[in-house]
Every structure is written in structure tokens, then in C-alpha cells.
Amino acid sequence: MLERNSRWCRLWASVVLVKLHFAKQVHDKIGSLFDCKAFFSVSQRPDMTELLNNFQLKLGMRDPDTSRARKVEDIIEELRQHLKEKRYLIVVDDVWDQPTWNTIKCAFPEDINGSRVVVTTRVEDVAAAACQNDGEGIYKMKPLSEQNSRMLLLNRVFGSKNDCLPQLKEVMAEILKKCHGLPLAVITIASLLANKETSRKSWESIRDSLGTQLATNPTLEEMKSILNLSYMHLPAHLRACFLYFGMYPEDREIWRDDLVRQWLADGLVSNLHGHDLEDVGRSYFNELINRSMIQHGMICCEEVVTCR
């Protein structure tokens, strides 16, 4: 990460799938050092009016008047006035094309007051445009080292960075080799292993299911095969609930209780030993998070209340 002195921005770009987690950690860790902060996702086909309205809400601005049509230019001007003379931290996640970025960036005043804008993208041309073709402003996520991959997996499976059964070490090394240092692959497989029997046979089954291509060709298609493997290992009741997420637009923040009520309405939640159905539905939700099938969002009173 290198700072540019000429303008307001420190812009990062990442071409790996776990960029969101990294940027979110930065946002949460240093956000208190700024006058205001916001984190919002863009996705592939954004509605710019809705996107910018959401940006305003993230900044704590007044609720937009949705009773009348608002021009993108007017919303941008409101954002510029709100951010003017403030020191702000904004994370713009998952930008897919340059025209979208060219519109969003107009909302940021160019005051030199220590403000920062973090952009994440999977497209190198977008990264270059966001940094005005200054390659020093781009941060590319590198694969995890063998040691860090092992620590990530062990911490997820055993709750410890060093506690691995001797009979599993060889299989673990083979699994990690196939993950090729991709954090999303490691954490997804680790979440799958955490819900399986801790035996060499069980781990070998997961290793064999990964195939051989990922070790030499860690492409998006191979990542999809890992995610598909996790889906196929879901219990039947969770698989049906997980498919519900297909109704929501990409990157939409989903409220847990709304989701659980939809599951209940369609009879996807079973009455377990007389327990309250909504409590059972929330346990389904939490299990999907624990399996890394969905990403947690807002936390209230130590409970995850939204997800993506």
C-alpha cells in the first residue's frame, strides 16, 4: 500500500475473490480515525440511483425521498456537499467496469485532508483507472504462504493454530496444496472439514473430491468446484434454505429474520424436539455462516442479524 500525495485517495485493487474480507477488516479497524466512513458493494449490473441512495444511507444521511424520481447527478451533488471538508474513509467494493467507477468517483470531493477511498475489483483495467494508471497505487493480493494456509485451516477446524492429529498431517498438506494459497479455497474447505468426522478416511474423501487440476490451475472455475463441493455436502434441510439466496440481487444485504420467516412460510424449517420454529430457523442461518456458505454482515447484541 503506497500513499499518493497529489490527491485525496489511497486506492487498492485486488484480483482475488477474498478481497472483500480484507477491505472490510481495514474499514472496521481504522474507520474510527475518520470523521465518517462507509462500506458499500457495487456488483456487476448496478442501478446507480439505488446504489447512490444506499451510499447516502451508509453515511447516515437523511432517508432519500423515494416518492419522486431523483437524478444521479443530484444525488452525487448531495454526497459531495455532505463529504466536503470532512475526513472520510470509503470502501467501494466489487467494481466491475470503468464507466461505473467514473460515475461513483464524482461523489468524492478532491479536498486534500487525509481522506481515503479504497476500491476493490477483480478487473485490472478498473484498478488502473481507479489509480489513474499509477501502478504503485494498486495492491494485489498474493496467495497465502504454506505456513499461513496451514494456520488458517487449523484455526478454523480445531480452534488452534498448532493442534492437528498426527494421522491427518499428510492429508492436510495434500489438501492445502490443492488450495494453492487461495484464502477463499482454504477457508471453504476448512469449514467443510470442521463439519465432518475427524478421521483420516473422511479427510481423504474431501481431498479426493477436489481433483487434481486446482494444484496447477487455480482458476475461477476451480474455485466454483470447491464451492460446489461445499454445497453438495450440506444437509438436505440446509441445501433447500441455501437455494433461497438465489432470489436476492448480488451483494444485497439480507436481514436474518426476514429470511427465516420466508423459510418458515415455505415449510423449510422442521420442528426439532418441540423447539420454537424461529429459533430453529436462526440455527439454520448460523450453521450456513459457520460453514462459510454465506458471509455475515451486521452484528447486534453478539448475534449476526444480516448476511450476504
Automatic annotation (TrEMBL):
Residues 23-161 form the NB-ARC domain. It holds the Pfam family WHD_DRP. Residues 1-23 form the signal peptide. Keywords: Plant defense, Repeat, Signal. GO terms for biological process: defense response to bacterium; innate immune response-activating signaling pathway; plant-type hypersensitive response. GO terms for molecular function: ADP binding. InterPro entries: Apaf_helical (IPR042197), Disease_R_plants (IPR044974), NB-ARC (IPR002182), P-loop_NTPase (IPR027417), WH-like_DNA-bd_sf (IPR036388), WHD_DRP (IPR058922). Residues 247-297 form the Disease resistance protein winged helix domain. SUPFAM superfamilies: P-loop containing nucleoside triphosphate hydrolases (SSF52540). This is NB-ARC domain-containing protein. The lineage of its organism: Eukaryota, Viridiplantae, Streptophyta, Embryophyta, Tracheophyta.
